[in-house]
Design brief:
alpha+beta; 36% helix; 33% strand; globular
Length: 76
């Protein structure tokens, strides 16, 4: 993935998370896997997890609970 594309996708992810009222604890692009790893700053319930995933423009999976909040993988 080109550097500019990664920044654009990161901006889209950030906008989606913020629009739904959550904050990002950590968002990283994993170049080896070509995915973004997202941890939001709060632990959210199953219904909220589904709502967040449905708002992403890319495919995403819930990965569990991290030290600071719910974790997701977003596929490019």
């Amino acid at each position: 993935m080109r550097y500019e594309n990664a920044w654009q996708i990161q901006d889209e992810i950030t906008a989606t998370v913020n629009a739904l009222g959550w904050n990002i604890w950590d968002l990283r692009y994993d170049r080896n896997s070509d995915v973004f790893r997202l941890e939001i700053s709060s632990h959210i319930e199953e219904e909220e997890i589904s709502r967040l995933i449905s708002h992403f423009s890319l495919s995403a999976d819930y990965e569990g609970e991290g030290a600071h909040g719910s974790m997701f993988t977003i596929y490019t």
